[in-house]
Amino acid sequence: MTIPSTSVEDVPINGFHKLLTLRSGGGSFVDGYVLSIIGVVMVQVTEAMSLSSFWQGLIAASALIGIFFGGFLGGWLSDRFGRKRVFFVGPILFMLASLAQYWVESAQGLFALRFIIGVAVGIEYPVATALLVEFLPRKYRGPRLATLTILWFAGAAAAYVVGEIILRSGGQDAWRLVLASAVVVGAVLFALRLGTPESPRWLLSKGREAEAERVIRQVYGPEFSLRNLPEQRERKTLSFWSLLHSGYGKRMLFVTAFWTCSVIPVFAVYAFATTVLQALNLKGDWASFGSVAITLLFVLGCVIATRLINTVGRRSMLIHSFLWSGLALLGLGAYHTASESLILVLFGTYALFIGGAQVLTLVYPNELFPTEIRTFAVGVGTSLSRIGAAVGTYLVPVSLQSFGIAPTMYAAAIVTLVGLLFALALAPETRSLNLQQAASLT
């Protein structure tokens, strides 16, 4: 049999790649759903449990705190035990913790369950993205990883739509059904992932060449082999920290900084969407339907970014995303007493333009690190970025109560523009590189 000279990173996309995108992207959909669902019912939960502003902020931030621990854990588990096994941990935790929310009776209990959900989300980020990127051809790597962000916002939009339907048709305790509804999407995700193979790059990094060869033939065809995998054949066992000292520290700083600056305003908005819109003088249905409309614009922004990522390039997209979304937040601070239509236009502008930075939070981390530490690096980026996001989310009700909506919007704008500075200083361009070249320091 003649071995083709084509690298597996240059082959056409096939049915397996499409199914794997769905399997990995399903995790992003569930992430968006479970993280955003609390924002739908925060008003009802606050009334039912008589929550203080302290507990409102803590419950809203609890999942983000869980992500901090889950990111480290998921990265370490995936690098040590493989992508395939860890691929099922998140869905199991989603189902168990989401179902338990139906019977929760205290703020402490809800905090604990949201924390567990956050751990599951943190585990999802490194394993789902690394497994996908390690199979994808280079031409489709950026757009397919970006698709995961679209699915995150689609999950968030679904949470608001489903949540509003249940709240309007349910009784006094309808918020319990809203929170527990995530068990359904978690179960679908678990079933969808059955039959997923292990990453041949991870197998090769562990010296399991025969298994890696079998997966390559299974996915790409019997004529392909390890010779078609553009990966170093002889590997040294390197720890994450030794690789940081060898030159990856600057990349870790960039990933953590831009990721943090891109997610702080987004998570704060999703946790308190209706509250923020009400503070911007959108009342009643304006606030409820405005939340759904803005979420759909987030999805549209990610769709546009996905279409342009290989044309515009990673670096240029990140710079423009931070610039224009930051200016929109400044506008919300300056014109916070304006008409409902202007507020929605400015919020919609932010939602559209931040899509570029959002899709790159999954693209850059997976491209800039080698297989040995890819999931751990993504996990570290996930975890560290959520420190700021958790603090920012916790401070939203405190800031609104103590300082008002204008300073809160100005603070979000400053965070976004700091992300712009990091993009200008450190963002590389990787769109034309294969995975090994993108992760190389030379």
From TrEMBL:
It comes from Metapseudomonas furukawaii. GO terms for molecular function: transmembrane transporter activity. Its main location: membrane. It is a multi-pass membrane protein. The keyword Cell membrane does not apply. InterPro entries: MFS_dom, MFS_sugar_transport-like, MFS_trans_sf, Sugar_transporter_CS. Belongs to the major facilitator superfamily. Sugar transporter (TC 2.A.1.1) family. It comes from the Bacteria. This is Permease of the major facilitator superfamily. Keywords: Membrane, Transmembrane, Transmembrane helix, Transport. PANTHER family: SYNAPTIC VESICLE GLYCOPROTEIN 2. The chain crosses the membrane at residues 20-42, 54-74, 86-104, 110-133, 145-162, 174-192, 252-280, 286-305, 317-336, 342-364, 376-396, 408-427. Residues 20-431 form the Major facilitator superfamily (MFS) profile domain. It is found in: Membrane.
